Amino acid sequence: xxxxxxxxxxxxxxxxxxxxxxxxxxxxxxxxxxxxxxxxxxxxxxxxxxxxxxxxxxxxxxxxxxxxxxxxxxxxxxxxxxxxxxxxxxxxxxxxxxxxxxxxxxxxxxxxxxxxxxxxxxxxxxxxxxxxxxxxxxxxxxxxxxxxxxxxxxxxxxxxxxxxxxxxxxxxxxxxxxxxxxxxxxxxxxxxxxxxxxxxxxxxxxxxxxxxxxxxxxxxxxxxxxxxxxxxxxx
Length: 235
What we know:
The chain has about 240 residues and is mostly helical. It contains 7 helices and 4 strands. Helix 1 packs antiparallel against helix 2, helix 1 (about 5-30) packs across helix 3 and helix 2 runs parallel beside helix 7 (about 190-225).
């Protein structure tokens, strides 16, 4: 049982984790139209360069790290609440973009109507595609994570972190690329190349962030005197 001071600190940390999650999710949907090539691997896959990626993918793995951390420390219910908050924020961002695009620019505006529309016109479709895929992927990630957490009695953190993330990232990547191809935002001939590049990149990042998850979990357990498998309960 935590005292009031510890409970207050746990709430504040949860709030900041949720803020990082929402920011990463919304920003990834706004910047997705810029593509980059991660050049260490000069390999052609299905007509595309391996690791030819949208910059929108860069903040995305952060969201899965955060939901795994919240799942481990605060429980499945709180992780699901953060995902729903992210979906709500994405919908709200669509409304803001539509209003901003509708409002005419003044003559000496640094950004003209044409440039603004070119940059953000596909954002509502991207957010919609992202929401559908992300909703499936995150709930699958949380469900699998807690399934293995229960099965292993809170042990083997590395296993449930990576296994849940690998499964959900494939669902997320396949679904969002499918929808963006359907809406003709991405060319169909790049479909499998983008799916493979996106999935492999996310898998590598998920493996890379495992030590950070261990570090953060260690911090929480030490700070709040948690046993392995024990969660912080916030009303």
